[in-house]
Amino acid sequence: MADVDTIPKAKAKPGTERPKLWKVILLNDDFTPRDFVVAVLKAIFRMTEGEALGVMLTAHRRGSCVVAVYTREIAETKARQGNEAGQGAGYPLAFTTERET
Ligand code: NFA
Questions:
Q1: Fold of 26-99
Q2: End-to-end CA distance of the chain
Q3: How far is the CA of 90 from the centre of ligand 1 (A)?
Q4: Are 99 and 81 in contact, with CB atoms under 8 Å apart?
Q5: So where are the chain's domains?
Q6: Alpha-carbon distance 44 to 91, whole Å?
Q7: Residues near 42 by Cβ (< 8 Å), separated by ≥ 6?
Q8: Residue in 56, 66, 67, 87 to alter for ligand 1 test, most ligand atoms within 8 A of Cβ
Q9: Span 24-50, pLDDT tens digits
Q10: H helices within 15-48, ranges in order?
Q11: For residue 32, what is the DSSP state?
Q12: Among the atoms of ligand 1, which is closest to the Cα of residue 33?
């Protein structure tokens, strides 16, 4: 049996499907203080100060920024917690979720 080891498999091995993932997206607004956004990112998304600053500034400059990617339930929970933190402090801070393609 010549070269049988080098014949490629027709398909990827079953059971190796990629999990469905959802992005959590931070939206910019004109009212939420920068420090508050950074504090929320650190508390809910377990970011360092530097990571949180980078995400906040990207959303500030570009209008939005992907914060992180999770399975659906975790993404929706983190987005809701971020929105509630803003609401609780009287700010329009907004996170959305979007299925990753
Ligand atoms: N644009 C807000 C400000 O200048 C900061 C901000 C950044 C708000 C990212 C929401 C998201 N105070």
A1: Ribosomal Protein L30; Chain: A, (3.30.1390)
A2: 42
A3: 14
A4: no
A5: 26-99
A6: 16
A7: 48, 49, 52
A8: 56
A9: 999 999 999 999 999 999 999 999 999
A10: 34-45
A11: S
A12: 12
Q: Which residue has the higher pLDDT, 56 or 15?
A: 56
Tell me what percent of the chain is helix, strand and coil, each rounded to the nearest 5.
45, 20, 35
Cα-only R_g, the chain: 19
Q: For 42-71, how does the pLDDT look when each residue is reduced to its tens digit (9 = 90+)?
A: 999 999 999 999 999 999 999 999 999 999
> Closest residue (by CA) to atom 10 of ligand 1?
28
Burial zone of 24 (CB within 10 Å; 0-12 exposed, 13-18 middle, 19+ buried): buried
For the complex shown, is ipTM > 0.95?
yes
Q: Please work out whether the CB of residue 85 comes within 6 Å of at least one atom of ligand 1.
A: no
d(CA 35, CA 39): 6
Amino acid in the structure at residue 61: R
